[in-house]
Amino acid sequence: MVVEVKPPGISSTSKALISTDGPTPIAKAFPTVIPMAPPMNNQENAERSIALFFFENKLDFSIARSSSYQQMVDAITKCGPGFSGPSAETLKTTWLQKIKSEMSHQSKDIEKEWATTGCTIIADTWTDNKSRALVNFLVSSPSRTFFHKSVDASAYFKNTKSLADLFDTVILDFGPENVVQIILDTGFNYTGVANHILQNYSSIFVSPCASQSLNLILDEFSKVDWVNQCILHAQVITKFIYNSAPLLDLMKKFTGGQDLIRTGVTKSVSSFLSLQSMLKQKQRLKHMFRSPEYCANPAYANKPQSPNCTSIVEDGDFWRAVEESVAISEPFLKVLREISGGKPAVGSIYELMTRAKESIRTYYIMDENKCKTFLDIVDRKWRDQLHSPLHAAAAFLNPSIQYNPEVKFLATIKEDFFKVLEKLLPVPEMRRDITNQIFTFTKANGMFGCSLAMEARDMVPPGLWWEQYGDSAPVLQRVAIRILSQVCSSFAFERHWSSFQQIHSEKRNKIDRETLNDLVYINYNLKIARNTKTKSLEAADPIQYDDIDMTSEWVEESESTSPVQWLDRFGSALDGSDLNTRQFNAAMFSSNDHIFGL
Question: Is the pTM of the predicted complex or chain greater than 0.70?
Answer without folding.
Answer: yes
